[in-house]
Amino acid sequence: MKALTYHGTRDVRVETVPDPVIHDADDILLRVTATAICGSDLHLYRGKIPELHDGDILGHEFMGVVEDIGPDVTNVRVGDRVVIPFVIACGDCFHCQLSEFSACETTNTGQGASLNRKGMRPPAALFGYSHLYGGIAGGQAEFVRVPKANVGPLVVPEGLADEQVLFLSDILPTGYQAVLDAKVTKGSTVAIFGAGPVGLMAAACCRMLGAERIFMVDRYPYRLDFAQATYGVIPINFEEIDDPADFIVSQTKGRGVDASIDAVGFEAKGSKADTLMTGLKLETSSGAAIRQCIAATRRAGTVSIPGVYSGFIHAFMLGDAFDKALTFKMGQTDVQRYMPELLTRINAGDLRPDVIISHRMALTDAAKGYAIFDEKDEADACRKVVLTP
């Protein structure tokens, strides 16, 4: 089969690789009908995530048709069209019983990314990511083996196109969990840092839940223009406004927003000092976005962090967070928990996640898709790339 494989920093290739096979009794084999390039795939593409091996198959946002099932599979049948959550969860362990699927204790053979583990079990395995998260072959391919198929694959009803539901695999539940973690309700004021796919899904969910004002911070005019036109956000270009948090506070009666959402993560662009600290290993993740979130949020407000972080950051401003009595919520998404509810919302017309798609390409052109998404050229105006095998 054809699959997108990793061979080093900014070196991905569509190659012929062996077809996957059923390995465990609760596996399914999926024929992929649509897959996407995620913002977190760019962390891999740029060589920022350790424990990627030459030839690893990437991709964790995908869906397709069930081609074969193991003998213990009861949740789906051959021929079903399903969306696959990027988190692989067993459904039976301590955390899965609490619907904390991203913390599943049994699926990850890697060690996770925590530096100070104290022997604690790693979090759930993820499709198409680092061997820290299991090294499971991903979905930017013609076929995928899906483990733990009784926990996760969601059958798509007739009448919905692939593009309408594809993002149930990751970015829509990720944006939704971030908004729920931020305690967004009718009348809320919110600041979203990052107008990439997760930030846009967070904006869509804020609107759905009745947020009154949404500030969105980014450096790319084409992304901010789209967010303003589609979700009615107040755009803030930090290449033009040096201190977005200061501007946000000035626009909220000197209080700040009810909640800030960091949809950027550890590759956030900051000052020259931020870049220097990262280069000197004084911090392993850029702290630019999280420091802005702390500054922009009102006293007793919430900072929600769906953006990926690793290691440590300099100047976390813990004293400011304490003084302001802030609540922090963060972590990988419990995708399985939210997929059914969000499917209902899509079916009812409350959410249209597919509107963010800017580029549609064949799987054979996936390497070009990565390059376009990574470059963020104004002429290309690339928001989201969907690939079809």
What order do the helices and strands come in, and which of them pair?
Layout: E1 2-6, E2 12-16, E3 28-37, H1 39-45, E4 61-69, E5 81-84, E6 87-88, H2 94-97, E7 125-126, E8 143-146, E9 154-155, H3 162-165, H4 171-181, E10 189-193, H5 197-208, E11 213-218, H6 221-231, E12 234-237, H7 244-250, E13 257-262, H8 272-279, H9 288-296, E14 297-305, H10 318-323, E15 327-330, H11 335-348, E16 359-362, H12 366-375, E17 385-388
Parallel strand pairs: 10-11, 10-13, 11-12, 13-14, 14-15, 16-17
Antiparallel strand pairs: 1-2, 3-4, 3-8, 3-17, 4-5, 5-9, 6-7
Labels describing this entry:
389 residues; alpha/beta; Quinone Oxidoreductase, Chain A, domain 1; Rossmann fold; 7-stranded mixed sheet; 6-stranded parallel sheet; 22% strand
Q: What's the average pLDDT?
A: 94
**Poorly predicted spans:** 270-283
Question: In total, how many beta strands?
Answer: 17
Q: Quickly give the structural class.
A: alpha/beta
Beta-sheet strand percentage?
A: 15-25%
- Largest beta sheet, briefly? 7 strands, mixed
- Radius of gyration over C-alpha positions, nearest whole angstrom: 20 Å
**N- and C-termini, Cα separation:** 10 Å
Q: Under the CATH scheme, which architecture of the largest domain would be assigned?
A: Alpha-Beta Complex
- Please identify the top-level CATH class of the largest domain: Alpha Beta
CATH-defined superfamily of the largest domain: Medium-chain alcohol dehydrogenases, catalytic domain
Q: Fraction of residues in helices?
A: 25-40%
List the secondary-structure elements in sequence, H or E. EEEHEEEHEEEHHEHEHEHEHHEHEHEHE
* Number of individual domains: 2
Instruction: Output the number of helix runs.
Output: 12
CATH topology of the largest domain: Quinone Oxidoreductase, Chain A, domain 1
The coarse overall form would be globular
